[in-house]
Specification:
alpha+beta, 5-stranded mixed barrel, globular, 5 helices, 217 residues
Length: 217
């Protein structure tokens, strides 16, 4: 599962991936590495072109009385059509999450966890498919979509964020009088994924203040 998202891109770099995009520097997150419950930059479609805004990572349905303790960070893309509430979001409230990378954790045979940074090997921006909703108290929230990894990407994890580009990204943001579920199903089985580069990150050094030997000195 994707547990962190990185965005190290400015307004100009993000805008060039969209024909028309309403965005300002104020829309960009304050931090480069974003964790659950952080506000994410999302791009949604509309008759006036694409529009950038912020949504908290962790979906809270508009019908809920209160925010759940563990809002949904991701949704299985292939099950959305058959689920009434999520089908509504799929048809009406789609967005893209621009990212320069995302992070996953792998567990090796010895039980050790390692953090992987996943990015395109050409350094281009990733566009992650997502859905969002508006809650009267929680505000705008979102969840990214995941799909089974194909090809070499399966060596990272069995499921990864659904990455769109080109015509697929345009389809995702377009307004459809009746959402074409067959075309959506085709998005989940692309001919190829972007070539991804996985980099294992070193674990941070423990703080001396938290070291037991230091405490005894």
């Amino acid at each position: 599962m994707c547990e962190r998202i990185e965005l190290r891109a400015g307004v100009r770099d993000i805008s060039r991936h969209f024909g028309r995009l309403q965005i300002s520097a104020r829309d960009l997150p304050d931090e480069e590495e974003l964790s659950p419950a952080s506000p994410l930059l999302i791009v949604s479609g509309g008759s006036g072109g694409a529009r950038a805004s912020n949504a908290r990572w962790g979906l809270v349905g508009h019908f809920l009385d209160r925010s759940p303790r563990s809002p949904l960070l991701d949704l299985r893309a292939e099950t959305l059509v058959a689920t009434p509430f999520y089908s509504h979001l799929l048809r009406r409230k789609r967005c893209l999450i621009p990212a320069t990378a995302f992070f996953v954790w792998q567990i090796d045979g010895g039980g050790s966890r390692r953090k992987l940074r996943i990015a395109r090997d050409d350094g281009e921006l990733l566009l992650i498919a997502a859905v969002f909703d508006h809650h009267p108290h929680a505000g705008s929230t979102c969840a990214l979509l995941t799909a089974p990894a194909i090809g070499p990407a399966r060596g990272v994890q069995a499921r990864l964020p659904l990455l769109l580009r080109g015509d697929a990204a345009d389809f995702w943001l377009a307004e459809h009088p009746e959402f074409p579920t067959d075309d959506f199903a085709a998005l989940l089985q692309p001919a190829e994924w972007p070539t991804l580069f996985a980099e294992a990150l070193p674990e941070p050094e423990p703080s001396p203040q938290l070291c037991f030997e230091f405490a005894l000195a």
